[in-house]
Amino acid sequence: MSTPTSDVHATSPAAEYLAFTLGQEEYGIDIQKVSEIRSYETPTRIANAPEFVKGVVNLRGIIVPIVDMRIKFKLGTPSYDQFTVVIILNIGHRVVGMVVDRVSDVTTLLPEQIKPAPEIGSAMNTDHIVGLGTLDERMLILVDIDKLMSSAEMGLIDAVAA
Q: Where do the TM regions start and end (predicted)?
């Protein structure tokens, strides 16, 4: 007799993730949330914006807040080079850009390649981590970009973009 969990894995299709790096870590987000990938250009700074909001850019008439993920995840001082890109995301009714060190590829993961996120404790908020994707020797930290970009912080981002 099979358990409901094994039935889910048997019928769940593979999912595609856009892999990107921040520092030494490789992350993945659902490719369906990605609108486009652009080279980094310095955004227009907005007074009183949270530190992780670098500013805004005008993308074909839409004012898009730009979030620096290295600052958001507290991964040291960001540096911007020829590999730095902005991933433009469609999240609900919002368009948001996130700055990452580099984008590597689109990776297809089967459900059995995704392990649950480890319990780290209260020292770090891991609500936005879906799990860990394993592919040969690679490990992707899979991020629920909807959860990450929602919450009270998004109210601040909305205020910046307004």
A: none
